[in-house]
Amino acid sequence: MFCFLAALATVSADPLSHRVEIDFFRDVPSRNLKGLAARSDGRLVAGPVLSELAGAAPADLLWSLSPTNDPAKWLVGTGPDGKIFEITIDAAKATFSAREIAKLDEPHVFALARLPDGALLAGTSPTGALCLVREGKPVARVALPVDSIFDLLLVDNWTALVATGNPARLYRVDLRKFAAAGVAADKLAEAKLLAERGITLFGEIRDRNIRRIAQLADGRIAVGSSPKGNLYAFARDGGAPIILQENREAEVTDLLPTPDGGLYAALTFSGGNNEARITPPKNPPKEPNESPIFTPLANDRFGGRGAVVWLPDNGFPETIVSRGNTAFYRMVRHGDVLLITGGEQGEIVGYDLPHRMSLTYAGSVSSQLNALAPLAGAPGRFLVMRNNAPGFALLDFSQAAPREAETRRIDLGAPSLLGALRFNRLRGLTDAQVGVALKTSNGSDEIEGWSQWTPLTAAEQGWNAPALRGRYVKLRVQVPANSAPALELDRAALYALPQNRRPQLQDFRVLSANFGLVPMPEPPPQTLISIGQLLQTGKQDDDKRKNAFLGSQIVPTPGAQVVLWTVTDPDNDAIVCTFSLRRDGEEKWIDVVRNTREPYAQFDTAHMPDGVYFTRLIATETDPRPADARLTTTFETDDLVIDHTPPQILAASAQRKGEMFEIRVEGRDALSLLDGIEAVFNHGVREQTEQPVDGILDSRSETFVLELPLARVAGATSVEVTLYDVFGNTTAQRLSW
Questions:
Q1: Could you give the 3-state DSSP secondary structure of residue 482?
Q2: Angle CA 329–332–337, to nearest 5
Q3: Residue 298: its pLDDT value, please?
Q4: Which of 159, 517, 613, 693 sits in a 20 to 30 Å window from 723, CA-based?
């Protein structure tokens, strides 16, 4: 019964202490991860190691990356001087070196492809020139009737497709004929002159630029555009395209086909007309419009978002990843995980395809990561090309290194005394393997005014903070390099006691003389509350069924357990849910309710053994959706603790202290947190307290002190003291004097 009374008390008065939920996916930025990854369910899991490679940057802007026959050597197209470099990677020493192999007349080399015979095919801007380079010299060149060439695709050894911008066209190139045509200085616009050099129009779209091209499993050609961000498909022989997906104010930055005919598309949605994703170099060209695609940033922070769209073969597009204030650049597949590089904070993100979960990996010191490629012969290792500052990094999923995560600044709401830190659950780790530290500040500045890192002590009750206080906190979690690959750290909860601030006088009035006041009798305590009051949602909902449910009353019922949920469908399909339990250590799931439309389950726990129970909720679409099209999703929901065992009173005393009468009770519970004490004197006076001596109600072992004026207990000769835990279990003891 006491647990329901405690619930009633929370409606009228909150406890002095409070808990702050720490969601690692929300609270840990990419750059604050080392060897760990933050998952979209709020947990920390094992992740890759990102190592910045030391070396002199070959150019201000690194645009395109192409492999060679040597796994240690790569070709890079750059700007604003139109140079092509050969980059040599030394992974063992974490260094790179650059060697210039060609310089073109155009400022920017946006696209680069290495041909089977070792020659290089380069696409440039702002003249839209297509160049064939052998041994460092252009042997063939055509300036197409466009401004820029953004992408190249080798269809076979002697055929290439060229994606252009302003206007948006696809050209097919016969590489043999093109190589034999030589260098043409002037821009060619006539189809006949282009055909003489092996270049024919494959297709065109009405958007301004074709940014990316890829070949699907069935031979069709997929393209992505800008500034609309549409996705198109051409027949294998060209012609008029069909639109796969229409967007607005976006740029398709990468396309990744799958063997089953599907396609992943990375898009960046702009936050405004004056924003661009490439920061200009320190010494920009004299002509501000030299490259018309990229303009200076209007704001320090990118206001758009990045997204990944999945287009199944003969299916409808589905957005599987979306990140605000982040631009997506390139994608690769690593096993069952989709890796995505981004900006503007050097983010590397992932998407777990089987489990449909987003991941945040360790980020780079750079602002933009605009290329990502696997290292040949080195599974789990990837080369990352970065801009602002330009350079390279190595992403390694196979390397063992110390694992660390640090949260961003977390606001406690007011200066507070910190209590215990608790993880919901550790998987693949012991408490001894987890190092936890906190730093605090009374100011909101990210750098100035912070304390030193203070390690927390692991104990039975969690990780304890040694008398730390502050308005803002940062949490650092460290685990050893040799930790299990399947490690998981659940979301954490930090308990805190806010500063006790002085009362403030807001209004004062003097009533007219000769008027008295008849006090209103104190109303009796409220015995019934609604679920809406208990949840304290404060939201208005027009759904009559939901409003009726929130108006349900809560009444004391020993042994009852109520579980609530809210499940919605983006298409407003009808949903039924199955809620199940499984005790820790057992394998069988027990269905509490099956295929219910109600947003709750109510069951009796009196017959269930004490312990921690895992829970799951299975949501399934139902009619009128056809049976073969109904989708099912399984959610791992919060753990449930069942506790029937009363707490223990370790010590209790009742005595006079000066002008006050003091009752002191020291108690402990084996499974759950303590909740307070109640004292009933034998002359009818009844008092209770939920405030422990240390001020923070966060432990299974607490000491409670109840002080009353002597006049309040005058005439009493004994008192019955009852100790409660949060589940309403009680232990009583009588004290006399």
A1: coil
A2: 115
A3: 39
A4: 613
Structure tokens at 518: 């008849």
**H/E element, 702:** strand 701-709
Q: Which two tokens stand for residue 324?
A: 């605000």
Distance from C-alpha of 399 to C-alpha of 386, rounded to nearest angstrom: 21
Which stretch of DSSP H or E encloses residue 200?
strand 199-204
In degrees and rounded to multiples of 5, residue 199 shows phi and psi of -115, 120
pLDDT along the chain (737 residues), means of 10: 39 66 96 96 95 95 95 96 96 95 96 94 96 94 96 95 97 96 91 95 97 97 97 96 96 97 96 45 41 42 91 93 94 97 90 95 92 94 94 93 94 92 92 94 94 91 87 96 92 90 69 58 66 56 56 77 88 89 93 92 89 92 84 89 93 92 95 93 93 91 94 93 91 94
What separation in angstroms does the CA of 154 have from each of 78, 112, 307, 330? 21, 11, 27, 18
DSSP strands (E only) in 442-528: 454-455, 457-459, 462-464, 469-479, 488-489, 492-498
**Burial of residue 262, with CB atoms counted within 10 A of its CB: 0-12 exposed, 13-18 middle, 19 or more buried:** middle
Residue 294 is given by DSSP the state: -
Helices (H), 165-254: 175-181, 191-196
In this prediction, residue 10 carries a pLDDT of 39
- C-beta neighbour count of 207 within 10 angstroms: 21
Indicate the pairing of strand 183-187 with strand 137-143: parallel
Give just the sign of the alpha carbon dihedral 596, 600, 604, 607.
positive
Residue 548's identity, in one-letter code, is A
Maximum pairwise Cα distance, the chain: 115
Beta bridge partners of 458: 463
Yes or no: say if 146 and 165 are a contact pair by the CB < 8 Å rule.
Answer: yes
Q: What was the pLDDT predicted at 259?
A: 95
**pTM score, whole prediction:** 0.80
The DSSP element (H or E) to which 663 belongs, if any, is: strand 660-668
pLDDT, residue 542, reads: 42
- 7 by DSSP, 3-state: which? helix
DSSP structure class, residue 576: E
Give backbone dihedrals phi and psi of 377, rounded to 5 degrees, phi first. Answer: 75, 10
What residues pair up with 263 in beta bridges, in sequence order?
257, 311
CA distance 398 to 483: 13
Tokens of 288: 């501000």
Give 484's contacts (C-beta < 8 A, 6+ positions apart): 46, 428, 429
pLDDT value for 512? 52
For residues 67 and 398, the answer to whether their CB atoms sit within 8 Å is no
* CA 306, chain centre distance (Å): 13
What residues does 651 pair with on adjacent strands?
666
Token reading at 247: 């967007």
